[in-house]
């Protein structure tokens, strides 16, 4: 276990905003840019941009191969970033931090590997016919489709925890869903649509009690709240660089070392082997086993800087800031009759993704009006189509907040929603 | 002050969105297709009814286009305007209309729409300057084209 973080700078919104150069962007002469789509891709603060530029300016070379000093410098920067990331997520060992191309690849890695074992693979890490895979109805497609595919390849059965009308997991049927047949429980820490924060620790404990692995999609949670894999008690966790103020093209799979050390590889090729002969190969220890090919080196360095940036602000402070914004947004929207929020009311189990539908105005049209006001929100099903179907809609409009979001921006968003309704319902039209 | 949104949501678009023409699924029909926009989840089910018209040299005349569309104002209005425009034409007559529409829509606003040729569909052409909305407008037209291909495939059997 690592020591808890202590913020090293005050949560001063003005100075935070100065760290994000893109916030000065204007969409046209009269329109400032209000970025409320961090749930899709977050913006990067100057230290993250600089870290990548510095690395490329001074230390760029192939990592983990070659004996020259540049290769050493690059490898040091890469491995230093891995250590930083590991510390940020509470990983007991930095060898448990596998660098991937994103959270999607991290989840696919686990799902693929769990179906690829043979007689030498521990039974716990091998999904077979008759086994069950348990997911939830609120999953992003990235944590649903890989499990559908695993079930198809292995003859296992996919089951799911349904959702309540209150936008939370319906755990009443859990005893019959999570049984000794369950091999894997895959769930999101925080819904990218509803904002619901799931009781991961309790569910991981229940999974462990029946011998099932817990795979956590932490793409939405890690940037917004204190996050510690050891405390959560999960077996695997997937993170996305570009959703946590870091670069695109990089993500993380954290996994318990004893699992990673016993799992077959996902991608194969250079850098992941131990020995290679013409007819067979043996594989390196984790994390190298799961890092075939050249990793996204400068992106990983950028992600390390993003972890440092978040740590300096303090995850408790960030969570509190975004809670306050969420409460304000929900209060504002509650004053507009035609709006139906998809998600629970404000609470610590409710994060800063605020999705809603408007009777009679399609999300695409709402987003268009908001965009005309400079407000950048996501529209559509947000890669969570089954969730939207569950609530009887094809899509929704979603605002999502970050460290740099202001109350004034939230107010502009609420005002913009009201204007969108006026625009489409104006009597003259 | 004019609202720049009005170039997208023209009066005709709003009118067709609120009171869609030829909406609902009807019999008879020769082909039915179902199209989905995977990015937003919008859907259209479209039925096409054709008739060989001997007075028009045996051309295929579009007798009916009926549809059910779930989607944004642009996609719903587009389906409505298209049905209004194409019902009664021969499939050959529909062709240049669709071709021109696709040209304008992929031009990012550099090609002026020919109102003589595409009639009320000109009201949809503001979307050419909103790249994210082009798919919304084209969805119904793609569905019509797919239905037409299907009727031809049936004719060959």
UniProtKB/TrEMBL annotation, chain A:
Gene3D superfamilies named among the record's database cross-references: Aspartate Aminotransferase, domain 1 (3.90.1150.10), Type I PLP-dependent aspartate aminotransferase-like (Major domain) (3.40.640.10)
Per its record, the protein catalyses: (sulfur carrier)-H + L-cysteine = (sulfur carrier)-SH + L-alanine
Cofactor(s) recorded for this entry are:
pyridoxal 5'-phosphate
Q: Which UniProt keywords apply?
A: Pyridoxal phosphate, Transferase
Q: Which SUPFAM superfamilies match?
A: PLP-dependent transferases
* Signal sequence region: none
Q: Where are the transmembrane segments?
A: none
In the Enzyme Commission scheme, what number(s) does this protein have? Answer: 2.8.1.7
**Superkingdom to which the source organism belongs:** Bacteria
InterPro entries listed in its UniProt record: Aminotrans_V_dom, Aminotrans_V_PyrdxlP_BS, Cys_dSase_SufS, PyrdxlP-dep_Trfase, PyrdxlP-dep_Trfase_major, PyrdxlP-dep_Trfase_small
One matching Pfam family is Aminotran_5
Record has Flavoprotein as a keyword = no
The residue ranges of the Aminotransferase class V domain are: 34-413
The record describes the protein's role as: Catalyzes the removal of elemental sulfur and selenium atoms from L-cysteine, L-cystine, L-selenocysteine, and L-selenocystine to produce L-alanine.
PANTHER family named among the record's database cross-references: CYSTEINE DESULFURASE, CYSTEINE DESULFURASE 1, CHLOROPLASTIC
Protein family (similarity comment): Belongs to the class-V pyridoxal-phosphate-dependent aminotransferase family. Csd subfamily.
Provide the protein name.
Cysteine desulfurase
**What organism does this protein naturally occur in?**
Brachybacterium epidermidis
Upper lineage is: Bacteria, Bacillati, Actinomycetota, Actinomycetes, Micrococcales
TrEMBL record, chain B:
What organism does the record attribute this protein to? Brachybacterium epidermidis
Identify the InterPro entries for this entry.
NIF_FeS_clus_asmbl_NifU_N
NIF system FeS cluster assembly NifU N-terminal domain boundaries: 9-136
**Signal peptide as annotated in the record:** none
Name the UniProt record assigns to this protein: SUF system NifU family Fe-S cluster assembly protein
Coiled-coil annotated residue ranges, if any: none
Pfam families in alphabetical order:
NifU_N
């Amino acid at each position: 276990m690592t020591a808890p973080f202590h913020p090293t700078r005050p949560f001063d919104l003005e100075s935070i905003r100065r760290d994000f150069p893109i916030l000065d962007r204007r969409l046209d002469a009269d329109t400032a840019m209000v970025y409320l789509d961090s749930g899709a891709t977050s913006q990067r603060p100057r230290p993250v941009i600089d870290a990548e530029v510095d690395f490329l300016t001074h230390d760029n070379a192939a990592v983990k191969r070659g004996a020259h000093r540049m290769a050493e410098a690059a490898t040091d920067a890469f491995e230093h970033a891995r250590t930083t990331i590991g510390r940020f997520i509470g990983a007991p060992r930095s060898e448990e931090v596998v660098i991937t191309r994103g959270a999607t690849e991290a989840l696919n890695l686990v799902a693929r590997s769990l179906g690829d074992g043979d007689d030498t693979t521990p039974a716990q890490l091998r999904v077979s016919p008759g086994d069950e895979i348990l997911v939830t109805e609120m999953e992003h497609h990235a944590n649903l489709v890989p499990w559908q595919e695993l079930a198809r390849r292995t003859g296992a059965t996919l089951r799911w925890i349904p959702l309540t009308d209150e936008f939370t997991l319906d755990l009443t049927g859990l005893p019959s869903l999570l049984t000794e047949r369950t091999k894997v429980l895959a769930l999101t820490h925080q819904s990218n649509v509803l904002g619901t924060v799931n009781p991961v620790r309790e569910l991981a404990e229940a999974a462990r009690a029946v011998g099932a692995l817990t795979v956590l999609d932490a793409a939405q949670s890690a940037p917004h709240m204190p996050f510690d894999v050891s405390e959560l008690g999960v077996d695997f966790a997937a993170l996305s660089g570009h959703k946590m103020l870091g670069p695109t093209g990089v993500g993380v799979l954290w996994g318990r070392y004893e699992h990673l050390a016993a799992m077959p590889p996902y991608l194969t090729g250079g850098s992941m082997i131990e020995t290679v002969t013409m007819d067979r190969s043996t594989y390196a220890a984790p994390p190298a086993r799961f890092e075939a090919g050249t990793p996204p080196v400068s992106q990983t360095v950028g992600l390390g800087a993003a972890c440092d940036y978040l740590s300096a602000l303090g995850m408790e402070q960030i969570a509190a800031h975004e809670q306050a914004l969420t409460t304000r947004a929900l209060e504002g929207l509650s004053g507009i009759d035609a709006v139906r929020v998809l998600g629970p009311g404000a609470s610590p189990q409710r994060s800063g993704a605020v999705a809603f539908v408007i009777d009679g105005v399609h999300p695409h049209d709402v987003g268009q009006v908001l965009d005309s006001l400079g407000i950048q929100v996501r529209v559509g099903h947000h890669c969570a189509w089954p969730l939207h179907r569950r609530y009887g809609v094809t899509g929704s409009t979603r605002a999502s907040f970050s460290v740099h979001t202001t109350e004034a921006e939230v107010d502009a968003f609420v005002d913009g929603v009201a204007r969108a309704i006026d625009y489409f319902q104006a009597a003259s039209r | 002050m004019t609202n720049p949104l009005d170039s997208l949501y023209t009066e005709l678009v709003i009118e067709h969105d609120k009171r869609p023409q030829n909406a609902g699924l009807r019999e008879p029909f020769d082909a039915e297709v179902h199209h989905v926009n995977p990015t937003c989840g919008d859907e259209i089910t479209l039925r096409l009814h054709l008739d060989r018209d001997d007075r028009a040299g045996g051309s295929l005349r579009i007798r009916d286009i009926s549809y059910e569309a779930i989607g944004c104002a642009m996609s719903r209005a587009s389906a409505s305007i298209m049905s209004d425009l194409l019902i009664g034409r021969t499939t050959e007559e529909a062709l240049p209309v669709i071709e021109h529409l696709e040209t304008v829509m992929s031009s990012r606003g550099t090609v002026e729409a020919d109102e003589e040729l595409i009639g009320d569909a000109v009201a949809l052409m503001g979307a050419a300057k909103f790249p994210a909305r082009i798919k919304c407008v084209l969805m119904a037209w793609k569905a019509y084209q797919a239905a037409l291909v299907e009727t031809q495939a049936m004719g060959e059997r």
